[in-house]
């Protein structure tokens, strides 16, 4: 496990774990906040038994493992459904998205703006403008703030 690194959050894919409750407990015992991830094909229902026990839910907007994939717009419905469910909770977990996240895809999420965005190739290197990472991140922050 990666607990020796003492990350703030540790995500696991619900599809890969036999006993999510046990893993959530182990993560918490290490003083780390658990985060549960779901792939594009996985229905939100698969994580419902665990949403009140995790601090964050990671919605994959591409299939894991391959950079440069297209954003799967069908995941927008999943994000919206997730927020609808979370709105009834007293202390809902954060919602994070990962996969082809950049200015255009952030704008697609305007009605269900996630709390956390994972920036990779698409977010930092998506065009040939010669601007710094700091400038790129500031540009993305401004877009996000427009919709909050």
TrEMBL record:
GO terms for biological process: carbohydrate metabolic process. GO terms for molecular function: D-ribulose-phosphate 3-epimerase activity; metal ion binding. Its EC number is 5.1.3.-, 5.1.3.1. The keyword Isomerase applies. This is Ribulose-phosphate 3-epimerase. It is an enzyme of class 5 (isomerase). It comes from the Bacteria. InterPro entries: Aldolase_TIM (IPR013785), Ribul_P_3_epim-like (IPR000056), RibuloseP-bd_barrel (IPR011060). It comes from Tetragenococcus muriaticus 3MR10-3. The keyword Isomerase applies. Keywords: Isomerase, Metal-binding.
């Amino acid at each position: 496990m990666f607990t020796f690194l003492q990350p703030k959050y540790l995500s696991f894919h619900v599809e890969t774990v036999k006993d999510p409750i046990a893993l959530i407990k182990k993560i918490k015992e290490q003083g780390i906040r658990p985060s549960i991830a779901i792939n594009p094909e996985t229905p939100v229902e698969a994580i419902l038994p665990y949403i009140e026990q995790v601090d964050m839910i990671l919605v994959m907007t591409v299939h894991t493992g391959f950079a440069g994939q297209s954003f799967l717009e069908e995941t927008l419905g999943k994000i919206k459904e997730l927020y609808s469910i979370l709105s009834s909770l007293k202390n809902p977990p954060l919602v994070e998205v990962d996969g082809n996240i950049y200015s255009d895809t952030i704008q697609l999420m305007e009605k269900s703006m996630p709390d956390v965005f994972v920036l990779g190739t698409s977010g930092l290197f998506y065009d040939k403008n010669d601007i710094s990472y700091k400038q790129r991140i500031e540009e993305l922050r401004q877009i996000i703030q427009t919709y909050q």
